[in-house]
Specification:
three-stranded antiparallel beta sheet, 1 helix, 12 strands, mainly beta, 44% strand, four-stranded mixed beta sheet
């Protein structure tokens, strides 16, 4: 019985890679990889992006601080957890704390790690760091700059699914 017949996933060997689009916050690559079963080449596309960090901030009185904003991918206004890209050299926890303050005006002092996941390993090479913070307090106005326009929304934690 070959390894492929045993149900084990096998590594593919990449034989070529080229960047086909640079979209500022991500790039698209075309990769050619040889099948571990028959050696035949196949073409794949991969999105290279910085890691992402998100944080669920909770106030002392039990409200989650969420963000309402228009999202161009979904073409609608969404209600979501504060999040953003991790800057080069930045610790993901610090990125989550920074995004919380920028997008909501609430200061989180510490970020407690919930999980690190690869959000879509079929297409993306990056990771998503998910955090939560308690005892967050309003500190300043939202720092909307450029194309980002966010509105903080308080939702009782008991009302979250």
């Amino acid at each position: 019985m070959s390894e492929s017949d045993s149900g084990r996933a096998l590594d593919w060997h990449e034989v070529a890679r080229e960047q086909i689009a640079d979209c500022r916050i991500f790039s698209v690559e075309r990769s050619t990889a040889a099948s571990p079963v028959d050696g035949q080449p196949h073409t794949f596309h991969r999105i290279q992006s910085p890691d992402w960090a998100q944080i669920l901030p909770i106030t002392p009185d039990g409200h989650a601080v969420l963000v309402r904003q228009f999202r161009h991918g979904a073409q609608r206004v969404t209600l979501e957890i504060p999040a953003g890209l991790v800057d080069p050299g930045e610790d993901p926890a610090q990125a989550a704390l920074r995004e919380c303050l920028e997008e909501t005006g609430y200061r989180a002092r510490t970020a407690e790690l919930l999980a690190v996941v690869n959000p879509n390993p079929a297409l993306f090479a990056n990771r998503l760091y998910a955090y939560y913070a308690t005892n967050v307090e309003p500190e300043r106005a939202v720092q909307n700059i450029g194309s980002e326009q966010t509105e903080p929304v308080l939702v009782p934690v008991a009302d979250l699914p």
